[in-house]
Amino acid sequence: MTDPTPPAFLEAVQSYLAGREAQFNYEALVHTFTDIERFHRWAGYMDRLRPLDGARVLSSGCGAGGSLLAYSDAGAALVEGVEVDAQFAHMARSRVADVEGVEVHELAPEARLPIPDRSVDLIESMDVIEHVPDDERYLRELRRVLAPGGIILVVTPNRIWPVEQHLGIAGPPWLPIGLADTIFGLLALLPGLSADRRQKYRELRGMRTQNMSMWRLRRLAKRLDLHMTVLHRTDDPGDPLPVDDPRAEQLLRTWWGKYVAPVKSLAVTFERRS
Asked: Where does the Methyltransferase type domain lie (predicted)?
């Protein structure tokens, strides 16, 4: 198994987080950058949906590169990561520099992927689509490079869940993004707030560009002629899907309930029809 924390990668992480030691989510950030266990669980989950052995895999929004190592360890022949943040791309490159068959591309947010049409077997998009400028254009480009029989995994916060999951603030997902950014930006000016609360309110602006719902994902699938499948938790303790209230999960399994189930995150796959 590949070393998930080579020295060059740890140096890049420490450089990125320098000066943030007192930040409310510092320890969580360190764990997010260095942990790889969750990526191995996702790779195992996806291998059951579409065998990874010998596959070409794309991680759209590869962050610090943990998913790239997991898919390589799972037997993928070629693993490519795309990242729009220059510092994250640097971290990912430093992490996989010595791993054969793994590449990292740094691209502008709406740039065309440097990948041929219909060539990728599995595409992973984890907590990305809510940040893109144009969700339909983004998904259309992923569809372009997807091979027949391949799948796109999309995991994104559910706007029905009232808490903004990146920052833990109640309220923003139920409001239009511009309005939420304005309201909480003003709330950050109120006296008496804790430093952590004030910082969270300020960081909300620009955190998301899309409020994603199951209705919206379904509409995108229809527009792009993709077959959408809703993913559900199983009794497997290694299942990487977020834990939800059993009643919400049960509602998610019904035809109409999946559109209103108050689950924290949405997890679906898209498959090309042609």
From this structure: 59-153
Q: How many helices (H) and strands (E) does the chain have?
A: 10, 9
Q: Determine how β-strand 78-83 pairs with β-strand 102-106.
A: parallel
Picking from 41, 101, 33, the residue whose alpha carbon sits closest to that of residue 70 is 41
CA-based nearest residue to 12, from 103, 86, 76, 100: 86
Residue indicated by tokens 């804790």? 194
Condensed to tens digits (0 to 9), the pLDDT of residues 79-126 reads: 999 999 999 999 999 999 999 999 999 998 888 999 999 999 999 999
Instruction: Give the C-alpha separation, 217 to 25, whole Å.
Output: 30
- Please state the φ and ψ torsions of residue 188, each to the nearest 5 degrees: -65, -15
* pLDDT above 70: percentage of residues in the chain: 100
> Distance of CA 32 to CAs 28, 62, 100, Å?
6, 12, 24
Domain boundaries, the chain: 7-160+211-272, 167-203
Whole-structure pTM over 0.85, yes or no?
A: yes
Indicate the fold that domain 7-160+211-272 takes in CATH: Rossmann fold (3.40.50)
Alpha helices in 57-194 (DSSP H): 66-73, 86-96, 135-145, 177-187
Give the H/E segment covering residue 58.
strand 56-60
Q: What is the CA radius of gyration of the chain?
A: 19
Instruction: Name, in order, each residue with C-beta under 8 angstroms of 253's C-beta and a sequence gap of 6 or more.
Output: 232
pLDDT for residue 29: 81
Q: Hey, what are 120's tokens? A: 């990728």
Instruction: Name the E strands within 133-264.
Output: 146-157, 163-164, 169-170, 226-230
Residue 212 burial by Cβ neighbours in a 10 Å radius (0-12, 13-18, 19+): buried
